[in-house]
Write a structure and sequence with these properties.
Blueprint: H1 20-26, H2 29-32, H3 41-62
Length: about 60
């Protein structure tokens, strides 16, 4: 039914409430550093703000 194989990749929940500090101290930084989603974070925020301002104005107009 199940076939087990050796696998050298693991997923560790770094956001667990317990032992997070110990994990960060034990693992090298390159294994747990945050990955940027956008090249220019501030520009992305401004883009989102513009979209939300329009949708918020539409919601206010309806009420």
């Amino acid at each position: 039914l199940l076939q087990h194989t050796d696998y050298d990749n693991f997923i560790v929940n770094m956001f667990a409430l317990h032992n997070a500090t110990v994990l960060r101290e034990a693992l090298p930084r390159d294994l747990w550093k945050p990955i940027q989603l956008n090249e220019d974070r501030e520009a992305k925020h401004h883009e989102i703000v513009q979209v939300l301002a329009v949708s918020q104005a539409e919601k206010r107009a309806k009420t």
